[in-house]
Amino acid sequence: MLRTLSGLTVLALCLAGCGGNGAPGQATETPHFVPPLTSSQAAAPPSSPAAAPAAPATIAPTPSRSASTVTANTKVKYVFPVKASNVDWHTTHSKYKATDIFADCGETVVATTSGIVLEISLKDAYVKGSPDGPNNGGLSVSLLGDDGVRYYGSHLSKVQSGIEKGVRVTAGQALGKVGRTGNANNVCHLHYGISPPCAQVGDWKVRRGVVWPYSYLSSWRKGGGKSPVAEVAAWKRAHNCKA
Questions:
Q1: Between the CA of residue 118 and those of 51, 76, 184, 186, 223, what are the distances in Å?
Q2: 47-52: long-range contacts at Cβ-Cβ below 8 A with a sequence spacing of 24 or more?
Q3: Nearest to 82 by CA among 240, 226, 188, 209
Q4: 2: which of 12, 37, 47, 63 lies 20 to 30 Å off by Cα?
Q5: Is 190 exposed, middle or buried (0-12, 13-18, 19+ CB in 10 A)?
Q6: Pseudo-torsion of CA 107, 179, 100, 19, nearest 10°?
Q7: For the chain, what percentages of helix, strand and coil (3-state, to nearest 5) are there?
Q8: Total structural domains within the chain
Q9: How confident is the model at residue 201 (pLDDT cuts 50, 70, 90)?
Q10: Is-contact 94 12, C-beta < 8 A?
Q11: Does some domain include residue 102?
Q12: What is the pLDDT of residue 73?
């Protein structure tokens, strides 16, 4: 029988906005942003007498994309980011535009669409009571989709083996497991944010989410393909990557 989420727990999380009872951790450096490789970087010069060694299959040799140059008609596949039969999520989130997707710890978190891994955090460095910052998410993965949009998931219990900065992934590929690291209030869930890839190291305020994900998640959960490209591009024009 599917579990029933506690109404009080959900309400508490929505009001808290992923704040609270994460276990203290040791300090570590902020996750680094790694821009995708460009075609010119991956290909050998035409005048070269011998082709350069092929890049590893997991490293994307394609040009980077941004929401400003990709339209809503760009054809990509979208997948609901948690592979589980029993999930719940909400229309709002405290303080900023994001969504908490509630699911059992250990359920699989997958890539929303095909793209390149931008940032990962492999250590839970959040200290309870500390100011908001890049450690809030605990273990996390952010992905630059082929549609030019960045997708971010945090509070993971683990990051999937082989998921590293610069690695190319496909829609539905496993990225990690649902957990409660960081300031997850000791409740299993995936913090999920959608944003433009503002290409700044540590731009965590943008990365954690700037447009409401609910309608897109609802579409993807039903097998639909609603795209956030236009809304993300509009936010970037209006805010110039300042969250």
A1: 27, 18, 22, 27, 26
A2: none
A3: 188
A4: 12
A5: buried
A6: 170
A7: 15, 20, 65
A8: 1
A9: low
A10: no
A11: yes
A12: 60
**Enclosing domain of residue 128:** 65-239
CA-wise closest residue to 145 among 107, 172, 122: 172
Q: Could you tell me if residue 26 is inside a domain?
A: no
* Residues paired with 179 in a beta bridge: 189
What span, in angstroms and rounded, lies between the C-alpha atoms of 9 and 19? 13
Write the secondary structure of 164-222 as one string of H (helix), E (strand) and C (coil): CCCEEECCCCEEEECECCCCCCCCCEEEEEEECCCCCCCCHHHHCCCCCCHHHHHHHHC
**CA–CA separation, 213 vs 99, rounded Å?**
6
Closest CA to 116 of 73, 72, 55, 25: 55
Distance from chain centroid for Cα 113: 11
What H or E segment, with its residue span, contains residue 191? strand 189-195
What are 66's two structure tokens? 């941004």
Range of lowest pLDDT (11-20, 123-132, 150-159): 11-20
> Looking at residue 164, which CATH number applies to its domain?
2.70.70.10
Percent of the chain with pLDDT over 70: 69
Distance CA 93, CA 99 (A): 6
